[in-house]
Amino acid sequence: MTFAGTVPRTEIAYGLAYRWLQELAKKCGRPYNRLLIALRGEVGEVNGRFHFHCLVGGTLTRNYHALLRQAEWLWKIQSGGARVDVRQYDRSLAGADYVCKCLGAYAYELDKYSFANTVTLSASVIRLIAGIDASGDRRYGQDT
Questions:
Q1: Is residue 34 part of a domain?
Q2: How many CB atoms lie within 10 A of CB 81?
Q3: Which of 63, 80, 100, 116 sits a CA distance of 20 to 30 A from 141?
Q4: Do the domain assignments include residue 116?
Q5: Cβ neighbours of 25 (radius 10 Å)
Q6: Which residue range forms the structural domain that includes residue 94?
Q7: In a domain, 144, yes or no
Q8: What is the per-residue pLDDT for 47?
């Protein structure tokens, strides 16, 4: 997700991204806290412009094509017409690999940016990684 014209201050950019995610949750009929979100801000290698990469899961939609178009439209409205590329997740690719990349497992990815990359993981992702469901019960490795 990019920004049209002047890139806003970092805290404003993140605010726009979070608002976009909240609106996306409404479009797919899911509570915001149930979406699985990995959000990474970075400075582009070519032109040095700040932008976001984001993985969103838990949408429970049956019509991904429509949701993709709605997600693009929502970002364009919020960002003043900036460029956005929304794609359906390819299950043959490793989502966990992307999250690890966000967390800095790939030195090359971090070294090519002067901006200190960060990743924001939603509490629902942390629960999923930890194997804890929303009620706080462990789902995996439990002796029953």
A1: yes
A2: 12
A3: 100
A4: yes
A5: 19
A6: 10-130
A7: no
A8: 81
Place of tokens 């200190």: 116
- Examine residue 33 and state whether it is found in any structural domain, yes or no: yes
3-state secondary structure of 116: coil
DSSP string covering 39-80, please?
Answer: EEEEE-TTT--EEEEEEEE----S-HHHHHHHHHHHHHHHHT
Query: Do 87 and 76 touch, CB atoms closer than 8 A?
Result: no
* Among 84, 52, 87, 83, residue whose Cα is nearest residue 67: 87
- From first to last of its 144 residues, the chain has per-residue pLDDT tens of 999 989 999 899 999 999 999 999 999 899 999 998 888 888 887 788 899 988 888 888 888 899 999 999 999 998 888 989 888 876 666 666 655 555 444 444 445 444 445 667 788 877 777 775 555 555 544 443
Angle, alpha carbons 128-134-140 (nearest 5°): 50
Tell me how many domains the chain contains. 1
pLDDT at site 20:
95
DSSP state of 7: P
Q: How far is residue 108's CA from residue 99's CA, in Å, rounded to a whole number?
A: 15
